[in-house]
Amino acid sequence: MDSHIIFFNKFLLILAIPLILSQITKMMTISDLTYKVVAFSETPNFNADECVDWAIDMIESGYETEHVLIMAGLSKPTNYFETISYLKAALHECNLTEKTGEEGIASYAFYYIKQIAKSVDVKSNLAKICQYCINTDYPKSIFDFYLLYWAWGDYDWGNTIQSYWPDATKDTIEKIVIDQARVWLHNNESFYSL
Description:
The protein has two domains: 2-93, no CATH class; 101-192, no CATH class. It has helices at residues 2-27, 34-37, 49-60, 66-72, 80-93, 101-117, 122-135, 143-156, 173-187, 189-192. The chain is mainly α.
């Protein structure tokens, strides 16, 4: 009878291992670059070299899968098509899915907007979002950052007024950008969450 209990306990453990591994994977942190790489298909002129940086970050976070390890070892500049092939496999191994459409745009933008919300290189990150907005044909979801970039630009050029963002002044534009980033993060979580 004891051998039946031991066998049953081993059987339950075998069944539980995938569930346990799944939970451990979810508890590990992921690289912030994940938000960019999962949106590679929504990113004109996607820089595949960032996949190498992402893979290194993921290894440091405990994700040591076959294709993540391969990507981490690629030399820059990478071959776009080779890297994307490895990226797709690595995303699958890490239980991540490619983001397309509005989700892809929001995911890619999240990387920079999160930095803005934390007051990190606000103007530089705003410029990257503005350029991404232009490159993706002005999606409504990030268009406010396009307007904020040009409002700030008018002040940088010495103008005393701008017509892009009502009530923004030279003294308040940075705070407005940061506040808008925080609002955007709150309102768009369903689009960029992994």
